[in-house]
Design a protein that fits this description.
With 671 residues, the protein is of the alpha+beta class. The chain is 18% helix and 36% strand.
């Protein structure tokens, strides 16, 4: 496995300073430097010796050394790697080094790239082996940030070599001001022989520190004009990536440090940025008047304002420099008709406030959800911005980046971020939990109706599916991005996996009730060869697909970490079978009721006259399962799968008293 040397920060343009004994190299408009002289403040780690190839690993990492000179006016990030390339696969994986930096406010200095072969050491660093690429990896998500990747193509690597390299990135985004904070990872999916993180801060700096998931030897020393914080780990054992984690969970160890005392200080930092934005705009005032003319109540105004920002301002993030966190002005956003999450959220806040509605931007985390508040206060915790507003006496959470929402505020999908950091609200705690409005629930209801004329003719199947909340928005986006014929084929093939001899009877019906944010889809099919006949009895198979779709299990079962099982939702699936002629069958009508901390499940089957029905409901209450409950959850999931995947066996003979096959079946069932 390859470790990529990457510093993830928001980007800008290279400040190229000429160092003594340094070479400066130009590629297009970007510059990097080579300087074999290691910065004076760096404390070099001792040479690490190989202890043999770890089983099942191509590359053995002997050293990972991270040092940070966290001075606001002269921020420097030093990194050193040493790894053994045990075989050709390791050579293939590790012969390209990637270093990402922000050229607007950072410069990259590469110090060493050495190959150690036996007792020989080769310096292979040359300008021609380095290429600077502006890849814009987030472009597909509508984000441009100017990040540059230095791609180093190391020549002449061979199995058995040791690859050593080091570099320094100078500077950091000025949007962070003078506060010091950071995160460094201490665990990977490969073994690492020796790991060190060293952070130097001004002597007056009071730094909070935390270590997660790994035991370290921590030292704190006062030296001249700075304080040194150092974490050492002699050996970090690899952890297999089990996948499927809850958002708040970190599989790998890390250390964090922060000068922020609490989340209020982080909120004040963000509030200062938003307050510096010129919110005045003639175009904004005209838009407010137009929205007011088309709204009878505050709720209608909020809906109309949200619809405008969602639908009339496209998502595009030009996150260069300060604008990685600083919103563009409403005037710019309205003129360009584009913006990222903070731009759109700030615009919506201004629209609401100008109508007398209390509203604030709120920072949230896709990565950690509500778990962000368990860590040290830091701007690094957030990667998205939404809006909190008090509309007609109700607190609502709005995401102006969503494009497929519709309906009243309480009918739109609830934002499942867990908690947020409210910006610019004085006198209250900034961290606030997101709570849904009454009726703001994701619901899926599916009803399958089978019509049986007799066992020799095709069975007619009608499927009616109703989606609300976030599920309606998802289905709406799917239909908008696909042609009608494509959707027809997708739905047909979905059921063809269960009934291969199925054919569509007309087009699917798609009805979008936008006011209620509810979508209804009706499908009609004809199924040949529906019944299997054996010893005078007829058998047909059924599967409650909606329940099965949302009843998820982790791919890795035997695991050391909690697993996610979906998002809160209520799913109901009803299967009915109507027979034209009398049939005889035995049905167990005992209700099935399963309740755990994570889910509720109920079902019941019934047969009367010529009508059979099976109704099942799954409610996901908690979206993850702890390790100690995994076996219990998997056992329950298996029971539910058995309940929703069933068959009906019956006899169509009218004279039940002489029906020997049926008597035989009943005798077996009674045992």
């Amino acid at each position: 496995m390859k470790l990529i040397a990457t510093l993830f920060l928001s980007p800008m343009m290279l400040l190229a300073s000429t160092l003594c004994a340094a070479e400066q190299h130009m590629f297009g408009k970007y510059v990097f430097e080579t300087d074999s002289k290691i910065p004076a403040w760096v404390n070099l780690a001792k040479d690490q010796k190989s202890k043999g190839k770890p089983e099942g690993q191509n590359t053995e990492y002997a050293l990972l050394d991270t040092q940070v000179r966290a001075f606001p006016e002269n921020h420097q990030f030093y990194k050193a790697y040493s790894s053994y390339l045990h075989n050709s696969q390791a050579v293939s994986e590790s012969s390209e080094i990637q270093i990402t930096f922000n050229p607007e406010y950072q410069e990259l200095v590469i110090h060493t790239i050495d190959l150690v072969r036996g007792k020989e050491k080769f310096n292979v660093l040359r300008p021609e082996i380095v290429r600077l690429l502006q890849q814009e990896e987030d472009l597909r998500n509508g984000i441009l940030n100017g990040a540059v990747t230095a791609l180093v193509m190391v020549p002449n690597t061979r199995p058995g070599d040791r690859l050593d390299y080091s570099y320094t990135i100078k500077g950091r985004n000025p949007v962070y001001g003078e506060k010091i904070f950071g995160v460094n990872r201490l665990g990977w999916a490969v073994d690492v022989g020796f790991t060190r993180v060293r952070v130097l801060v001004p002597k007056q700096t009071k730094l909070q520190t935390n270590v997660h998931g790994v035991k370290t030897k921590y030292k704190k020393r006062k030296k001249n004009d700075y304080i040194e914080h150092e974490w050492l780990v002699k050996k970090v054992d690899r952890r297999v990536d089990e996948g499927g984690y809850p958002a708040w969970f970190n599989r790998y160890g890390f250390i964090e440090y922060s000068e922020f005392k609490n989340w209020t200080e982080v909120s004040n930092w963000a509030g200062g940025l938003y307050q510096s934005v010129d919110q005045r705009s003639t175009e904004l005032d005209k838009l407010v008047k137009k929205l007011q003319d088309g709204s009878a109540t505050d709720s209608e105004y909020a809906v109309n304002a949200l619809d405008f920002v969602q639908q009339q301002v496209r998502y595009l993030g030009l996150e260069f420099g300060l604008n990685s966190h600083l919103p563009h002005t409403p005037a710019e956003v309205l003129k360009n008709r584009y913006g990222d999450c903070k731009d759109k959220s700030n615009l919506l806040v201004q629209l609401l406030q100008k109508n007398g509605i209390e509203a604030y931007s709120a920072l949230v985390s896709y990565s950690y959800r509500e778990g962000f508040s368990d860590y040290l206060p830091s701007p690094f915790a957030f990667d998205h911005a939404i809006v909190m507003a008090n509309v007609s006496g109700k607190k609502v959470w709005l995401d102006p980046t969503r494009t497929n929402q519709s309906g009243k505020l309480n009918k739109r999908a609830f934002l499942k971020f867990g908690a947020s950091l409210v910006v610019g609200r004085d006198g209250e705690k900034p961290v606030e939990s997101l709570k849904p409005l009454p009726g703001q629930t994701d619901i899926v209801t599916v009803k399958e109706s089978y019509k049986v004329k007799n066992t020799k003719k095709p069975v007619l199947l009608t499927v009616k599916s109703v989606y609300t909340g976030g599920q309606a928005e998802y289905i709406r986006s799917v239909f908008k991005s696909s042609s009608y014929s494509e959707m027809q084929d997708k739905y047909l093939n979905y059921y063809a996996k269960i009934y291969p001899a199925i054919s569509a009877q007309g087009k699917i019906s798609y009805n979008d009730s936008e006011d209620e944010n509810e979508i209804t889809i009706t499908e009609k099919y004809k199924i040949k060869d529906f019944f299997e006949k054996e010893e005078g009895l007829y058998k047909s198979s059924y599967y409650a697909t909606a329940i099965g779709q949302f009843l998820t299990k982790p791919e890795i079962i035997r695991r050391e970490s909690p697993a996610i099982i979906g998002q809160p939702i209520v799913v109901s699936h009803e299967i009915t079978v109507d027979y034209l002629n009398d049939v005889a069958m035995y049905i167990d009508s005992t209700p099935v009721i399963k309740t755990t901390e994570e889910i509720d499940y109920t079902s019941r089957s019934a047969f009367f006259s010529k009508h059979f029905e099976h109704r099942a409901t799954l409610k996901i209450k908690k979206n993850w399962v702890p390790v100690e409950s995994m076996e219990r959850y998997l056992s329950l999931a298996k029971q539910i799968e058995n309940d929703i995947d069933f068959s009906l066996t019956f006899s169509s003979e009218r004279k039940k008293t002489n029906n020997k096959p049926l008597k035989k079946l009943l005798k077996v069932l009674e045992k």
